[in-house]
Design a protein that fits this description.
It is a single chain. By secondary structure, the protein is of the alpha+beta class. It folds into 2 domains: 203 residues, Distorted Sandwich (Beta-galactosidase, Chain A, domain 5), CATH 2.70.98.40; 444 residues, Glycosyltransferase (Alpha/alpha barrel), CATH 1.50.10. It has a 9-stranded antiparallel β-sheet with strand order 1-7-8-9-10-15-14-13-12. A 4-stranded antiparallel β-sheet has the order 2-3-4-5, with no helix packed on it. α9 runs antiparallel to α10 and α15 crosses α17. The chain is globular. The two termini are 32 Å apart. The C terminus is likely disordered. It binds beta-D-glucopyranose (BGC). Beta-D-glucopyranose (BGC) binds next to loops. The site of beta-D-glucopyranose has 12 residues, from loops.
Length: 705
């Protein structure tokens, strides 16, 4: 490998069976439509091979609803190869390509593959097997229908066929009868090599899947691997021109950040505004392939400022799923929109009432993620507000976002209690980001987010009235919000946001500081099983101040200017030792706040933690007996935020763009681009904190120069 590649390539040498699953995540390819796990071609169900389709879900009666893993079109087996003698695997982040070279006792195999970013239905592979003279090695390539499924089987039928040199498998899902067609065409290259073109279509794509996939394969074969590869590379090039962050003086951080951006980008929907980015990207069926608040608070900031078209798709996904949110609010007896905690394609909530199993009894535990994490609706409004402010895209409001913000405001008004004696609104019986403390009162994060959501909703609806009175009137005719606006405004003003107490600590919720103050080590020492759940009804953390993940600290990141720095520091120092970081969402919040406080060493530590989570695999793998491994796009987004908002100190707001850098001492330079209100900017910061912000003109086509 060339030295310059070290910050663009993941390279692993040696084959360790214990790392096959991790490598499946680490070497992922994808294009927002599908994600192909980085297992080897000969791997199947046992090694968790996967081709996950974004937005295609199925439910087997009595089991969890989850995304569908399509038949595996790159599948290629070796007979008589013998044992592995040497192995290396490389992921080229710049071009989204994975390559492997494996020397077996009797044959040397090399392959390269990409999942096209130019044509989301297509993946291509070049495969070469050079047998030892006289060795009886047989290579067979086909489509594997033995599928890794957590809650399957999802196909009620799978039919094979071969026509015009194209092999096909057509599956029909059990619940909704969705047709998934996978076709593969093989082109011999020489005596020992071939190229393979695999196309995937489903009946959700608005075409007849089998003919479409077959035609795509033939078209791909006619174009050839190289030409398709060039078109694919050009798309990745365009992605990197927008989002790359260059760090000089720290190759490790540089690589980790690029790797994080790579993982985030390969799950990003460019082709559709009907899907979003699930919490585990497209790496598997974990977490039911569902979309959480992870998208709005941890991923959207990256796209809003680097590729607003993707950000818009993510926001439109929420607009299209508003019906599901209305239904959920109604189910609990509220008005407005209560978005799903674990959202699937129609905004239906995949989260169950019993989402964790007790490792001791094997019985499900009643959890309140679904019922009580009302902050999800506020997180969505917050993201819409930031998107609108940072892009100036008014059209998204008319296309559905204004309705979303109004319905969320309505939901919060119907959820809140007005305490006459205290003359304030309170939010009782909620769960904040720290899921170890369920059903608490006045969670600081939730209350502050709801206040922001009400403010944003009012600003957006006022703006709509001024700038698009017809759309405003039409929305009012549809959902009749006008008469409620004043009440929302009043609630925003009178909503209680827990202030710092006499010690300067903002209590995470009412009564939090009266809970047992135990160290994390001591609490862990009380555990009887390494994967026992610390939350739920009687989890060990519930009666203590130990929290699962950033909660108050995340709020301080989002509302930094609300508080004096001294308060922020005190709270960071208070919560840091009490935080388990049991969620991959947690580290970046601590990095972001530490960076803004000038605690660069702490910030760096947490930044590296968030940026390397998918490289090391050092994240929580089980909750109880529930497998939650896979990739972590929220942590990936958190890595970008830690550098851009944290170390570089980028802010947007009424005074436009500002940059207040606090780089780690060993960093010599940081450079990145953003697009702010339609204008692309280059930002260049050197080790003396000298900042150059350069605005770029746009070509007429709207593309940055
Ligand atoms: C975290 C949630 C998060 C979810 C998906 C959970 O472990 O507590 O905050 O949304 O994982 O990433």
């Amino acid at each position: 490998m060339k030295k310059t590649d070290a910050t663009w390539c993941l390279h692993v040498e040696g084959f360790r069976p214990g790392e096959v699953e991790l490598n499946g995540n680490r070497f992922m390819l994808g294009n927002g439509y599908m994600g192909v796990r980085g297992t080897l071609e000969e791997h199947g169900k046992v090694q968790r091979a996967g081709c996950l389709l974004n937005g295609v879900y199925d439910q087997v009666p009595g089991k969890w609803r989850e995304p569908v893993n399509a038949p595996h079109g790159l599948f290629t087996t070796l007979e008589g190869a013998g044992q592995i003698v040497a192995h290396e695997q490389t992921l080229d982040l710049r071009r989204g390509r994975m390559a492997r070279r494996t020397r077996y006792e009797n044959v040397s195999v090399s392959s390269e593959r990409f999942v096209s970013l130019d044509d989301v239905h297509l993946m291509c592979m070049r495969y070469h097997a050079a047998p030892k003279p006289g060795a009886g090695v047989r290579v067979r390539t086909g489509i594997d229908t033995e599928l890794w499924e957590i809650n399957g089987p999802h196909f009620k039928s799978l039919e094979r066929d071969r026509r015009e040199g194209v092999e096909s498998v057509v599956g029909v899902t059990g619940e909704l009868g969705i047709v998934v067609a996978v076709c593969a065409a093989v082109e011999p290259l020489d005596a020992h090599g071939f190229a393979k073109y695999v196309a995937v279509y489903t009946s959700l794509d608005g075409v007849d899947p089998l003919p479409a996939a077959r035609a795509k394969c033939l078209e791909a074969k006619a174009s050839g691997y190289d030409a398709l590869g060039r078109a694919h590379d050009a798309c990745w090039d365009a992605v990197w021109r927008r989002c790359d962050v260059e760090i000089e003086g720290d190759d490790e951080a540089q690589f980790a950040l690029r790797y994080s951006l790579y993982q985030l980008q390969l799950a990003a929907p460019r082709h559709s505004d009907r899907v979003s980015i699930p919490a585990r990207g497209l790496s598997g069926q974990v977490y039911k392939g569902a979309v959480f608040w992870d998208t709005e608070l941890f991923m959207l900031p990256v796209f809003t400022l680097t590729d607003p078209r993707v950000a818009r798709n993510l926001i439109m996904y929420r607009c299209h799923t508003l019906e599901g949110a209305r239904a959920k609010a109604a189910e609990y007896g509220y008005r407005g929109a209560f978005f799903a905690w674990e959202s699937q394609e129609r905004g239906n909530d995949a989260c169950t009432h019993f989402n964790v199993t007790d490792v001791f009894t094997g019985r499900p535990i009643r959890t309140y993620f679904r019922d009580k994490q009302i902050h999800i609706s506020a997180d969505i409004v917050y993201a819409i507000g930031a998107y609108y402010e940072q892009t100036g895209d008014f059209s998204v409001l008319i296309d559905g976002a204004a309705e979303v913000v109004a319905e969320c405001a309505r939901f919060f008004y119907s959820y809140a209690y007005y305490k006459k004696d205290k003359q304030r609104y309170e939010l009782l019986d909620v769960t904040g980001p720290d899921e170890y403390h369920e059903r608490v009162h006045n969670n600081a994060f939730t209350n502050r987010m709801v206040k922001a959501a009400l403010d944003i909703a009012c600003v957006i609806l006022d703006r709509l009235e001024r700038e698009a009175p017809d759309a405003h009137a039409a929305l009012d005719r549809k959902i009749g919000f006008r008469a409620e606006l004043d009440a929302w405004r009043e609630m925003a003003q009178r909503l209680y946001v827990p202030p710092p107490d006499a010690d300067g600590i903002i209590p995470q919720c009412d009564g939090y500081r009266a809970l047992e103050d135990v160290s994390l080590e001591e609490l862990k020492g009380r555990m009887l099983n390494p994967t026992e759940y610390l939350g739920g009804g009687n989890g060990l953390a519930t009666t203590t101040q130990i929290l699962k993940q950033a909660d108050v600290v995340l709020m301080l990141h989002l509302f930094f200017s609300d508080y004096p720095q001294e308060t922020i520091r005190k709270n960071w120092e208070y919560y840091e030792p009490r935080c388990e970081h049991g969620s991959s969402l947690s580290a970046c919040a601590y990095a972001l706040v530490a960076a803004r406080l000038g605690d660069t060493d702490w910030a760096y530590r947490y930044f590296m933690q968030t940026a390397t989570v998918d490289l090391t695999g050092a994240s929580t793998q089980y909750i109880g007996d529930l497998y939650i491994g896979g990739t972590h796009p929220a942590a990936n987004g958190g890595a970008w935020m830690s550098v851009v908002f944290g170390f570089a100190g980028l802010r947007t707001g009424t005074e436009g763009l500002t940059v207040t850098p606090r780089l780690p001492a060993h960093w010599q330079r940081v450079r990145f681009r953003i697009e702010y209100r339609g204008t692309p900017y280059r930002i260049d910061i050197d080790s003396d904190a000298a900042v150059v912000i350069e605005a770029k003109r746009k070509k007429k086509s709207g593309q940055p120069v």
